[in-house]
Amino acid sequence: MHVIAYGAHASDQPLEPIRITRRAPGADDVQIAIDYCGICHSDLHQVRSEWEGTRFPCVPGHEIVGRVTAVGEHVKGFKAGDLVGVGCIVDSCKHCADCDAGLENYCNGMIGTYNFATPDEPGWTLGGYSQQIVVHARYVLRVRHPQAQLAAVAPLLCAGITTYSPLRHWGAGPGKKVGVVGIGGLGHMGIKLAHAMGAHVVAFTTSESKREAALALGADEVVVSRDANAMAAHRLSFDFILNTVAAPHELDAFLVLLKRDGTLGLVGAPATAHPSPNVFNLIMKRRAIAGSMIGGIAETQEMLDFCAEHGIVADIELIRADQINESYERMLKGDVKYRFVIDNATLA
Ligand code: NAP
Ligand code: ZN
C-alpha cells in the first residue's frame, strides 16, 4: 500500500513529501493509521547523518500514536479502532536472553523504527512521519490516556521511556536526590517522571529562561549549570544524575555532584565524544558513569500506564508537516517547549 510520508533524500537535503510502501498486515501484524508523531533529537541526528550509516531516503519518527485499522489473524488483544503507540522498536529476534527478559532494546537483532534493515521496501525501516505503519503486535503499545490527550502522549514513546527506564533502574524515588541535565524533550519528561516517582528533583539547564518552567514541570530546584557557585552548592549530594544533553560537554562538572556510589546516567547521544572525565572523580567516591537506551516493550507499557494513572503527558507544540524542517532548526537552538509533535493529518 502506498502512503504519504515526509523524508529526506540526502543528509544535506530538507525533508519533503515522499511516497512510501507499507506491507499488507501479516498474521501477527497490526496496521495503524498514525495520528501524531513526536520529533526526537535522534531524528535530526539520523537524517543529517550525524551518526554513521543513514540510508536514504530516510523517514524518521519513533514517537508514534494512532488508531488500529486492521489486525492479522494471530493477533490477540488489539482490534480496529484501538488507540495505540509505537516507539523506537518494531522487531527483535524474540528468543535471546534480552528478548526473554523483556529487554528487546538490548537485543542484538533489534530493529529500530527507522533506518534498520528489513525485507520490506526499500530495504530499511521507515518511521512515523507517515500516514500509516504496519508493526508486529509484540511491539505495539496500548494507550490508556483519554483520546483528547493523544498528541501529547506521542513523546512518551521515546522521550518518556528513555527517561523512565534509567530512573527506575537507578532507584529514583522517595528519599533520593535526582538530577536531570538538559531540559529538552527528554529532560522535561525526566523531571515530570522523577517527580511523580517521589524523588527530590534538581533540574540542570544552560538556559536561565527555563528556570520557572522547570519548576512548573516538577523540579524542586533549578541550577543554571554555567554558574560555578550554584553547581558547587550541590557537591557530593546526588544519588543519580540523568544526563540528556545532545552535545559533547564536560562530565566532571556533574560527577563531583554525586555522593559515594552515585551514578551519572547518560542518555544523550551526541555525534562526537564527551571530553574524557577525570578518573579521580570516579575513584575517590566509587562513582559510576553508565548509559541507557530507551526501554523494553513491557517497561514501555508500564511507563504509559504509570503516566495515564498520574495524568502525565508531554508539553508539546503541535506542528504541520511543512514545519518539520523549521522545527529542526528551532530544536538546535533549544527553542522548543518541550517537544514538537507532527499532526499527521497534514501529510496529505
Ligand atoms: P532536545 O530536545 O534537543 O534537548 C536537548 C537539551 O540539551 C537542550 O534542550 C538543552 O537543554 C541541552 N543542551 C545543552 N547544550 C546543548 C547543545 N550544545 N546542543 C544541544 N543541546 C544542548 O533533545 P532530546 O530529543 O531530548 O534528545 C537528547 C539527546 O538524547 C539526543 O542526543 C538524542 O539523540 C538522545 N536520545 C537518546 C536516547 C537513548 O535511548 N539513549 C533516546 C532518545 C534520544 P538546556 O537548554 O536545558 O540546557
Ligand atoms: Zn527518540
From TrEMBL:
Cofactor(s) needed by this chain: Zn(2+)
- Every copy of the Enoyl reductase (ER) domain together lies at 7-342
What sections of the protein cross the membrane? none
Question: Which keywords describe this protein according to UniProt?
Answer: Metal-binding, Oxidoreductase, Zinc
> Does this entry carry the keyword NAD?
no
* Keyword match Transmembrane: no
The name of this protein is: NAD(P)-dependent alcohol dehydrogenase
